[in-house]
Amino acid sequence: MKKKLILLLLVVLLTGTLLAGLLPMSFIRSRYIEEVENRLLDNAKLVEGFLLEEPTEEAALQQRVLSIGEVLDARITIVNEEGRVLADTAMTEAGFENHLNREEIQISLQGEIGRSIRLSESVNEEMLYVAIPQYLDDGSIQVVRLSLSLSEIQEINRQMLIYVLISIGAGVILASILGYRFINKFLEPIKKLTNTSKEIARGNLDKPLIVSSGDELGELSETFNEMRIQLKHSFEELEDQNVKLQALLTSITNPIIAVNQKKEIILFNPAAEILFETKGEAVYGKHILEVVRDHILEERVEQIFDENQETQMEWELKYPSKKHLKVNTSLIRVPKDPNRSLGIVASIEDLTEMKKLETMRSDFVANVSHELKTPLTSIKGFVETLKSGAVEEEKQRQRFLDIIEIEAERLTRLINDILTLSEIENHRKSYEEERIDVKEAIGNSLDIVRPIAEGKNIRFSVEIEDGLAKIKGNFDWFKQMLINLLDNGVKYTPNSGEIQIKAYQQRGRIYLSIKDDGIGIPKADLERVFERFYRVDKGRSRKVGGTGLGLAIVKHAVRSLNGHIKVKSIEGKGTEFIVNFPGEKE
Description:
Elements: H1 2-52, H2 58-72, E1 75-80, E2 85-88, H3 103-109, E3 114-119, E4 126-135, E5 141-149, H4 151-201, H5 216-251, E6 256-260, E7 265-268, H6 270-276, H7 280-283, H8 288-292, H9 295-307, E8 311-317, E9 323-334, E10 337-350, H10 352-387, H11 394-426, E11 434-436, H12 438-455, E12 459-464, E13 471-473, H13 475-491, E14 498-506, E15 509-516, H14 538-543, H15 550-560, E16 564-570, E17 574-582
Parallel strand pairs: 12-14
Antiparallel strand pairs: 1-2, 1-5, 3-4, 4-5, 6-7, 6-10, 8-9, 9-10, 11-13, 14-15, 15-17, 16-17
Helix pairs in contact: 1-4, 4-5, 10-11, 11-15, 12-13, 13-15
């Protein structure tokens, strides 16, 4: 502000000084030109009288003009009505160009007094020209023109400009000194007010504003100090409430979100930051859709505002990860006006794991119950039939016994799979790590599943890279993993299909790929295929003799060998399982 005031003072001073200097310069130039013009006009009339008394021959006319010019101290030019210069005090041997186009000549030839100011091309100076018509005895007309250089007035103006600039310089220096001291004194209270305001902005509300002045600035200082004290009390109360609120929000494990009437986020606790994988500072002030990215939630929020009532709903979050949530919403009401709300606060409960566990439990109970009940019911029914003696025919009796045997084997497979899974998952069986030859394990596994594959005319395509490193782990579990994957491929590959087996090494890890051209797995089921007793097609799985534990055993076997597994599938085209393990270092 100080700079602005000093600059304003200097601008006013410069403007005043320039106006005071330039206006007189313009006036003096105008008056000077007017006086010179009148003098030239009088002299032109004298010249006209002298010329009428003398002969008009050009040589004599030139001589006469030169003699008159010495007396008048002015340039004299005589021009005929065709524009030709008849005589001139500045005549040269080359003569002059035609003067008919000169402004003052044209005006004079029309019978009036011509006047003009311009740069003379012949003498290269700014000149004042005055021309009058002279009527000759033969009826013709010629022009008598007198001109005078304006260099004198230019010199006067130059001197005045120098004086003006000197005055401006002296005035600026003096004004700067006096203005600086005056403005400093004037701005001192304002500077104190500014510094105190900065301290308040930094959170320091203890520094008072002291201004020793009996004018409006002193009154402003007292009012400012009262405001500072009130702000201090308000901030202390607000900070205390904020600390309590932050402690409460941090201790709440459920995500909490609050939005205002514009649906902009005004509260976002740490649990919400984890759920939506963002930071609270980055979402405050943003529209809820920018964070949640679900138009269904926005519609529900709009509905809550319209109906002005609290609600509860279950909501499936799709971004940033799929979650099943329960949302309880409450209106933020104004204490003095309960009918008016400032926004909505939502408490969110994550039901994803609970829903998942419920689904797994339900599937487990349903599958185990069915897997145990169905064969047991069959066995019990056929045993009772045999015991009753109702079946006397040997062929029929043998068929019943075969069915009982099949169902017993089915129960045996189920129990064995459960035991194998438990053993691998819990590492109950202690073992020493073996050096597993991948090629050998693949060969052994193919020998086991090949008879079943040949029954469906399924071909095996095997590509094993030479020099594969060994894998450390339990050979039986590794082979069980391979058998389950190959058996799974054979079961769900139609007759005359093909299963491709590839083994290769990449960046120190051993990769195995088992790919079939079977029925494939729907995209919605890919995430759950490794769950216990989960079947994509329950009817087909039972028909082919699956227990629902094969891929669960594969997953835990891979983990026990420090490996990773992933599945790619296109429904109707086939499935590929890719597993990788750390290779043995040489």
